[in-house]
Amino acid sequence: MDRNSKLDLVTDEQRLAYKLLAPTLIILLIVAIYPLSQVFYTSFTDRTFAGTNQTHFIGLNNYSKLLNFTIKELPPVIEQGTNQVKIDSKTGEKVYEPSFKVLPGSPKPYKELSQFNFLGKRYVVGATNPEFINSIITTLIFTLSAVSLETVLGLIIALLVNSNFTGRGLMRAVMLLPWAVITVVSARIWEWILAPSRVGLFNMFLEKIGIGNGQLAFLTADNWQLFSLIMVDVWKTTPFMALLILAGLQLIPGELYEAARVDGANKVRQFFSITFPLLKPALAVALIFRTLDSLRVFGLFQVLVGQRLYSLASYNYYQLVGNRAMGLASAVGVIIFMIIFVFAVIYMRLLGVDSE
Amino acid sequence: MIIDIKYIFKKILFWSVIMIIVLYLLFPFYWAVNSSLKSEAQLQMIPTTLVPRNPETMDFSPTLRNFAAVFKNKIFVKSILNSAIVAGSTTLLALIVGSFAAFALGKLAFRGKKPVLYLILAMTMFPQITVLSGLYAVITKFNLSARLSMVISYMIFTLPFTTWVLTSFFKELPKEIMQSAQVDGATPFQTFYLVLLPLTAPALVTTGLLAFIAAWNEYLFALTFTAIEPSARTIPVAIALFTGSVVRQVPYGEIMAAAVIVTVPVVILVFIFQRRIVQGLTAGSVKG
Prior knowledge:
By secondary structure, chain A is mainly alpha-helical. Chain A has helices at 3-42, 61-67, 130-162, 168-180, 183-193, 201-208, 222-249, 254-262, 267-295, 299-304, 312-322, 326-351, and strands at residues 69-73, 111-118, 121-127. By secondary structure, chain B is an all-alpha fold. In chain B, helix 3 (65-72) packs across helix 14, helix 4 runs parallel beside helix 7 and helix 8 packs antiparallel against helix 11 (201-217). The longest helix of chain B is centred in the first third of the chain and has 35 residues, at 2-36. The model of chain B has no long low-confidence stretch (mean pLDDT 85). At the A-B interface, helix 1, helix 3, helix 4, helix 5 and helix 6 of A face helix 1, helix 4, helix 5, helix 6 and helix 8 of B. Chain B: It is a multi-pass membrane protein. Chain B: Pfam families: BPD_transp_1.
């Protein structure tokens, strides 16, 4: 084969490759890259959703509307007669000025996000959009708690299913079931299980064993909402985690364990010196998938708590469809994108996935 | 004797852990089935009962009324059809387009392979919600129907996945198969669809199943794109917006019946393919 025809062959192969890749790249351009650039652009405008209003370029206005926050010291109330700090007679604690007195009211009003004590002084955190800041905090707490619980439970389930016992195939199928249920359907099932009276399984059961009064409002009470959402997500997606970990476990050659047994290593030792290091790539992939998925959680929040508690994605959705604030929603989308990107980069660096 | 006790103790411990996990994984299904067989009066019984019981005599008395009501609900029946069409077309399109790309990435040599691979990988981590408003703008511009919009937009998460998994399957196929086909006079494309594609059939089935489940499950895009076209609603949207026949009362019995109905087919699929699913992920996710 002379040099020229060899070159021809190479270009033929190249040309075929490009042709085969074209549909994929065109589709990804239409559904991802072009819309994404649109969103970036729209986030700097005051565009409305499905509206006929003229759109204006407003720079970083949407972003500052979303992210502005401030911390101010909150002075204690001084009683006029005695010039002393007012003490609440019931709790015995200092009484502070209401937060609207110290938070700036213009150009945009700041609303109280939270208060905290630091070095004997009281501070208030204000934000121009506490709902959005709260949705960030909610989503981060949700993601961190759900993913760590799912990892631990998934690891336990995968290790059990990976050991040899009769009924293993059945167990593997059972293990996958919650994952196969439509998220919205599982949210509806749990909504019913968590019903706020004893018509719900949980309230009936908890009352029977003496916890609560049979009236726990799992999905409306502030201190139960997030907890319930995490619980439902853990049930729904632990199987996925277990599945990915199981896939990783099955790649570890059995001879390694035999050798370890001959050397007298016990089960715990075997886990930490063989299983865990070899499982790391699979664990990394599972962690990335689950983390990125729960950072963009939507259906669970929308169905179970509606507009009572926002995740980042459900906040985005309500701004877009409910408020028709397309510009603002786009800015939310860009912020979500950045948060997810940061998580992805951190994971890849930490777990060495990108070196493959 | 001591060893025996220890062995028995270990066995009991092992099986109780298994039982707890099985119970944990299954009880919401049990509760959905149980509730779907209750009448409205039985659903409102306090405290609730573990099986449908007659409120007066406390005898076991299930009813199929909720299932009948759900099947009479035109929107729900239509939504099953919509979901089947949308998820089916999504899977087919993702498999066809994805296998083309996977063949190029797995078996052909060309310049720019790495950037393309990374671009496609980046899409798997792409937040759907971010493109929502931009995608909506594209769809209104081209004036696409809700069903077609869903099929195309679901490519965001199905296409990178099918391409990714299939690429690793193609890579594993021995190079000699391709070479011997070429010696026999087949063009590279003929080699692809006459020789390599049949060999990857098992991989196509697994990947297709996973893509199908993902599309069957999707909610955000479906909710947005069917907002003005209720007749195109898919199952997740229909169930989320289920209002039932009685106004201002959430028809939990019917919702649970609907939940049971739409869960059964996927459960059967999972039971049939459980071994394949594990293998599919082994090849796809871990080896990269």
